[in-house]
Amino acid sequence: MRKKIVAGNWKMNKTFSEAEDLVFGIADELASDRPEDVEVVICPPALYLEMTSDVATENNFSCGAQNISEHEAGAYTGEISAAMIASAGASYVIAGHSERRSFYGETDALIARKVKQALKHGLIPIYCCGEVLEQRERNLHFEVVGQQITEALSGLTAEEFSNVVIAYEPVWAIGTGQTASPQQAQEMHAYIREMAGKIFGKEAAAETTILYGGSCNASNARELFANPDVDGGLIGGASLKAGDFVKIINSF
Ligand code: PEP
Predict the structure, then answer these.
(1) I want to staple 184 with a disulfide (CB 3.0 to 4.6 A). Which of 102, 122, 180, 252 is the partner?
(2) Separation of alpha carbons 88 and 74, rounded Å
(3) Which of 41, 43, 174 to mutate for ligand 1's pocket (most ligand atoms within 8 Å of CB)?
(4) Residue 1 has pLDDT above 80, yes or no
């Protein structure tokens, strides 16, 4: 069944004690107010995965990493493997975030390998796609996202794809305060589902969770989540305050 998910991407924020305060704060807020059918995922910096996953297990939420190596193991200084992420208790991993694409040159060919590695070790990849402003202004956004999906995901089997979550994150909306309108989000999510249907079949596409990300906050989440093809959100800035993040979760 298609899952509703709200995932928080903390990016490179918080010291250890601040991260503990935030994760316990989220757990406390969730204890008093929470929709039953929404899966909550926290993606802290990798150093805090074990601490976060311990709190997550006790409080019925999940934990994910923000990045993953495309390699299995070995001489890759500074990298973190899928097996390591899984052994720290995480069950999700973000793959292909636009910051990884733009600052670290990640291509869809590389991201495809990361997605495969995640799946091999039982992690659920949250595959991020989305156009930059110039591409939207030139009306290329469907083409760009379609190509990203094809390049990164079409090498998967239908069974592998059934364990992938997609996040549509228009790059012009990330961290800018300029959210996609509910209509812009819905039309792209419907297009992504159609694309997935062409590759993996309609049934598989209907079951796929597609998240929206990009300046989603406690004030606009309800309108975005009300769309039939928007199954939740990948939240950056607004996931750094427990109260705001839990308000977003309760926007369903
Ligand atoms: C993100 O980085 O995935 C994101 C959606 O960030 P923000 O919510 O801050 O726009």
Answers:
(1) 180
(2) 18
(3) 174
(4) no
Nearest Cα residue to 98 out of 52, 50, 135: 135
What CATH code is carried by the domain that includes residue 71? 3.20.20.70
pLDDT of amino acid 168: 98
Which residues are annotated as catalytic?
Answer: 97, 169
Cα of 52 from ligand 1 centre, angstroms: 20
- Ligand 1: residue of 5, 9, 43, 98 to mutate (most ligand atoms within 8 A of CB) is 9
| Cα 75 to ligand 1 centroid, rounded to whole Å | 32
pLDDT digits (tens, 9 = 90+) for 96-147: 999 999 999 999 999 999 999 999 999 999 999 999 999 999 999 999 999 9
d(CA 125, CA 64): 9
92 is in which domain, residue-wise? 4-249
The pTM assigned to this predicted structure is: 0.98
Cβ contacts of 75 within 8 Å, gap of 6 or more: none
Residue 128: which residues within 8 A CB-CB, separation 6 or more? 94, 95, 96, 97, 98, 167, 169, 213, 234
Residue range 230-250, pLDDT digits in tens = 999 999 999 999 999 999 999
Tokens of 220: 């606009």
Number of domains in the chain: 1
Instruction: Name the nearest CA neighbour of 50 among 69, 23, 78, 76.
Output: 23
Contact 127, 96 (CB under 8 A): yes
